[in-house]
Amino acid sequence: MNNHCSCKSVLELHSFPSFDRIFQDINITYLHFMAIHNKIKCKSVIMKIFIIVCCAFIGLVLADTPKYTTKYDNVDLEEIIKSDRLMKNYVNCLLEKGKCTPDGAELKRVLPDALHTECSKCSDSQKKGSRKIMRHLIDNKPEWWTELENKYDKEGAYKKQYREELKKDGIKL
């Protein structure tokens, strides 16, 4: 019996916390953890909603971005390239030295914006077509190309801006 009493007195001397106190501390820690977890979860939900709203807004903006008309995308560029007379008519239209066909007038109207916005409103067909015409003019009619550069890129800003990109397509400015 003495041994038992001495163990009990040792436990009392060291004042170990009671099981109730341990469980109370665990419960407080758990509740604190859950409160933090709920705050994080709430912030996570808010962040997800914010990202969804931003994506929807960007989608709306991009959907509303007007594109240039594709009405003239089927013009036979090969036919124009083969004919100096046709090509010169388009060049004169752009230089305001001659009458414009409807597609030439549309090109003249959008060309400054297309240069400024890196053709962001162009269809793929329009981008390919512009490169084809540029290549032809630079390689075969450099004097016409120079006239167009003098009208639409007097400071050479676009030439500098597009040089590397066009170089990849084999067009040397």
UniProtKB/TrEMBL annotation:
Membrane-spanning intervals of the chain = 45-63
Q: Which InterPro entries match?
A: A10/PebIII, OS_D_A10/PebIII_sf
A Pfam family cross-referenced in the UniProt record is OS-D
Gene3D superfamilies from the xrefs?
A: Insect odorant-binding protein A10/Ejaculatory bulb-specific protein 3 (1.10.2080.10)
> What UniProt keywords apply to this chain's record, in alphabetical order?
Membrane, Transmembrane, Transmembrane helix
Q: Does the keyword Transmembrane apply?
A: yes
Q: What is this protein called?
A: Uncharacterized protein
Q: Which organism is it from?
A: Dendroctonus ponderosae (Mountain pine beetle)
